[in-house]
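Why run this: before we spend reagent on co-expression, it is cheaper to look at a predicted model of the complex and decide which construct boundaries make sense. The entries below are exactly what would go into the expression plan.
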Amino acid sequence: MTLHAAIPFDQPDLAALLAHSDATALDDLGFGVIGFDAAGLVQRYNSFEAQAAGLRAGRVLGQDLFLAVAPCMNNFMVAQRFADARADNVPLDATINYVLTLRMRPTKVQLRLAYQPGAALAYVLVQRS
Amino acid sequence: MSTAGDDIAHEQAQEHEALLQFLYMAPVGLVQLAADGAIQMLNPVSAQLLMPLSPDGGLTNLFEALAPVAPDLRHLCATFAAPQGTICDAVRLYVHADERSGGPQVMSLSMLKLNADRLMAVLADVTVQDRRERQLRKTDAWLNAIMTNITDYALVCLDRQGRVESWNESIERVTGYASAAIKGQHYARFYPDGATTEAQQLDRLREADENGWTLDEGLRLRADGTEFWGSAMISPLPVRADETTPPAPPADDEPAYCMIIRDISDRRDASESLRKAAYSDHLTGLSNRRAFFEAADLELARRKKALRPVALIVIDADHFKAINDRHGHPAGDAVLSHLARTMRSVCRQVDVLARIGGEEFAIILPSVALDDALAIAERLRAEVECTPATYEQQPITYSISIGVAVMDDTLDGFDGLIKRADQALYAAKRRGRNQVACWEPPAAEQP
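The model came back. Tokens follow.
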């Protein structure tokens, strides 16, 4: 399956689509993609997100998402929802308005939080609003 | 093949990236803002701490983002006259978020002025530290009570009900009471009118039973009506062990507690100014959120031990933004100060009066049931309506809306009580403002 820039941020079942896409396909997307495993370590990081944050994937992959990469999401609005979904084994697909601190500038974004029970990775998707 | 210039550019890019990552990972919140509060730069931990306060806000202005927990911050920064320096150092902000959310309950904020239009803020989550300190403070109060120089003290024996059991000369020395005037009287006689309630006095005795001692500091009354700043420690007398008979509970009029009252007027100034800095709202002099939530916790803990009413009044100045827009912020501040003074004039000393938001105030009324709370709220509303605030000799008329709720057993904490009072406040606003509303259960639950 291939992805391209035309895939919208609000595409249904996006997490399943991303799980089956390779790194090149993720890099083609017009929004940020961060995939992280059950231990919270970043496993996927596309070039849109790298560009926005000013950090290349090499600096981020393998790091703890909520401690070392995006501490701004380490609260009940984001991190807690992933923890709850994993603990209760229920799907999570929610879109919220948020402010990220990309390159230390307050930036309004929409975050889509996506997790399917049984999937290896959960995803935070970032769209500039 | 790369040139020397390319190498330098590459090195700089690497360094820039490393610096960015350093700031992304910094474990405290850092914010750079303009004099009007506009956020220019902030790191992720700042957003982590600030976003739960304003889920719909865009984090464009720090004063607005922090307004729910630090309503006087704008005023504090605006009135800081020096060209640069520390505006505040590790001030505690009491978030009192829903405990289930697991977020920070207490934040520490430092503000630094760099020049006329550049401020820096440092934010940190100090929830755990704050909890530990609260426990230490209790121990400190106890140590203060026994370690400080004692110039004079009165030793009083109280019976089970808190009545003075016998007279001795130290009572006369410190409080001026002769034997006949005080024996058999309740120890509340040493408190000014309105400074305590009967339920509160009995609580103190129960607290002494449970902890071995209880301590409180405040204004006390001499026989001639003059006041002094006193510290009173009450501890239960040891039950005499009698080998032959099982211990019987002491009769009502037997000595059961020992109370030591000390005149510490000398120390009052020092401890009052410290207390003011930590527990008062900068603008109005009322309790701040920290003092308010600590008092609420205490009052509810006491209610658990001995059931009695607790009422909560929340107050909001109507159309306050319009007052600020029309007359300017200093006039708005004058209105808030006027409201605070009016609140003091209708309340007792034992009531807890606090500023809990920009133009939002609250009063905890211990041992007051719904009817009386509504009457007090109405008196306050009417008083505000008929006496305008003044700013630069100009009268500013304004009105307030009030929500009233009382604690009951279907609520499991103070958060629930605040929610009810807030709902009542919104009802008062919806019905056209300048009125008092009391919380009503949802229609579905009514028979």
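Chain B is about 40% helix and 25% strand. Residues 241-247 of chain B have pLDDT under 50 and may be disordered. Bring this page to Monday's planning discussion.
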